Amino acid sequence: MEKVKPRTLTGFMELLPGEQIEFDRFTDVLKQSYIKYGFYPLDTPVLESSAVLLAKAGGETEKQIYRFKKGDTDLTMRFDLTVPLAKYAALHYNELNFPFKRYQIGKVYRGERAQKGRFREFYQADIDIIGDGELSIVHDAEIPAVIYDIFSTLGIGGFKIRINNRKLLSGFFELQSLSERIDDVLRTVDKLDKIGRDGVMRELGEIGVSDEAAADIIAFVNTEGTSDERLAAAEKYAGKNETFDKGLEELKTVVGYVRLFGVPDDNFTVDFAIARGLDYYTGTVYETVITEHPEFGSVCSGGRYDNLAEFYTDKKLPGVGISIGVTRLFSVLKETGFFDFEKASPVDALIIPMTQNMGYCISVMKTLREKGVRVQTYFEDKKLKKKMTYANRINAPYAVIIGDDEIAAGKVALKNLDTGEQTVCTAVEAAAIITE
Amino acid sequence: MEKVKPRTLTGFMELLPGEQIEFDRFTDVLKQSYIKYGFYPLDTPVLESSAVLLAKAGGETEKQIYRFKKGDTDLTMRFDLTVPLAKYAALHYNELNFPFKRYQIGKVYRGERAQKGRFREFYQADIDIIGDGELSIVHDAEIPAVIYDIFSTLGIGGFKIRINNRKLLSGFFELQSLSERIDDVLRTVDKLDKIGRDGVMRELGEIGVSDEAAADIIAFVNTEGTSDERLAAAEKYAGKNETFDKGLEELKTVVGYVRLFGVPDDNFTVDFAIARGLDYYTGTVYETVITEHPEFGSVCSGGRYDNLAEFYTDKKLPGVGISIGVTRLFSVLKETGFFDFEKASPVDALIIPMTQNMGYCISVMKTLREKGVRVQTYFEDKKLKKKMTYANRINAPYAVIIGDDEIAAGKVALKNLDTGEQTVCTAVEAAAIITE
After folding, report:
1. Mean per-residue pLDDT, B291-306
2. How far apart are CA A133 and CA A315, in angstroms?
3. Cystine design at B53: which of A88, A344, B76, B205 (Cβ 3.0–4.6 Å)?
4. Which residue in B80, B60, B86 sits closest to B121, CA to CA?
5. Where is this protein primarily located (chains A, B) (predicted)?
6. The overall pTM is greater than 0.90
7. Any CB–CB contact under 8 A between A25 and chain B?
């Protein structure tokens, strides 16, 4: 038979079994945190009507999407989890209870040019809290608490949640008589990390900002010090612009609550340089950087928005949320050697029969499973060496070796494959040792 | 602003929040069982190259698929989890350890004509055990053990796993001198449940089977009695056809091991009518019916195949597996009223502040979460009645009411929303009561 060469498309992550165990453990940390904080699960279709999914989309989005026709139906694969949430909230408005808190962990699709670290299919893990007409600012402070919980549990070392407020930035630009160009200025300031002070100065000049105003802006967004020192520095501009004052007030409130939620000052900071330039945020904004890997950029970003679903409904649905790009985060951490795939095993123990009496092996397996041990039996008729190699290759921590002697004694030989230590004991005793 | 009417495509299941909690609980039962039995997780892309995904596909599949071009790339959305597994096993052959046991729970896509109970996007939950060159028949008996475990845990009442062997059927048809038409006969026999005895007689006649042979076939596949009685009835045909004898031997072996795995005779039966007509199975075949709902048809089917990846590789990779159509099963069970969505809540408790002191509420929330309680706080500034309505609408089992009196006493008022009972206690005591 003529064979088709098997391959996986570029930009589509497909993991080896041990890697997949770690990936699942990773996403499970996110899921369990989201659940603990009272978020509903949500699962929306990967495919939606193009008219619905692209109601808001601009040119950049259009280019990157997977869009096609099936019969007469114009379909698009979702490119984020926010637009489907907006559709969902508008469509099911009467059946939802607000504040509506939901998490969604799912694949999204972007037909970007293939390059290292860029994926065309990737998981996003989002949470959003949606209000009906209004939404308490305390929610803005709970979001960093969730981020803190997740990144602490993942154990990826130091991290810092950078918090700012878009009103404060907009107000500051208004003070510089730049109210006409706030979006352009925001977008430019957002590039500070990427193109540096000089780059931002030059680009601000190009969009007509005077050197003096540009220097002021850069000095402000680069304000150094503790969160409290930065807030104090901002106070100097207070009382001159309503938007600025509102933003500063919100930011102070959020910082106060973030501390009450137990997020240590080591793990968050006020940072006036955070703009989330291209996004639709209107208040609090967040970015999260891993201390040892600033080169990853922000691994968890989000913010507050005034109106989630304005393209679908007249209802005003303000919200606050974040998104973690799980596939990218996993992929970059993998490159740093963060994961120990050698420890990833589908089993806690592998039963190795050295007998034809599979019935006894099966009864031992049943006992172990009832005690919560993940276990399988190597049923194939192979030499012991081959069976042990298999146990090592799947990283089984224990081998449960069963020969006719063990059967006669009603026992098993339990071998710790790490230390090589071997003991003869009952299946129940083996379960206790394995699950210890 | 002009609004786009929000809608979800026909044939794409989108659940309300409470329903989604139950759906997730449902799939989690499957996942935890699969993990306990030592299956690796696997996650393959939803999109694959059409040349790869359609290597084997016939006309029916081609019509039902979502296939499109992005630039020059011809893409297809996966229509099952078996073809991606075949690709994966062939592509990563050198990095896998055989037997390779994997589970995959994921969405698949079929552009079928929209009708009740038919989905265009739906979850499949598959397990397969793949051998390299050969695979012990004991695995064929472990599959029903997994099914038994899952359906017992789901608590959907009585169910029966029907087990047969394709070699036994094929051999029987050869005995009827129908070796040229085995596939057609299998396909027809498979319709017994749907079109009845007379329908099968007529269709067998149409494909040229004599009335006598047809009557023999129907009598054989309708053999009644216990599994042992049915096996004994089959013995009568033994010794005349090698394929039949091999199939009978395999079936007896499987039945023996299935019992050793602890599956009660109440939950499985030998059934010569099971053919899995359109599938590629070559040995053991399974179907599972829910006793109270035979109208659902088989909710979990599968079997043994000789060669998983023959379209991609010369390696012979025999396997055995099953697939559960999760979306359909959930959907039909939902219609029977099986789920109690009124009990589905995103929280174990809702904190209701009757104070402006949110700091105290947040510290109580922290304590509860540390004790494993899923909790959120109603931060919005609303009347108590509105807050209690919210608690009831999200089905919160408990309300933790905090006013200035409670704060002064360092306590909370814990209200059981089911009984109405209210007690004043510390946050730690509340956690103990809630998690009880």
Report:
1. 93
2. 7
3. B76
4. B80
5. cytoplasm
6. yes
7. no
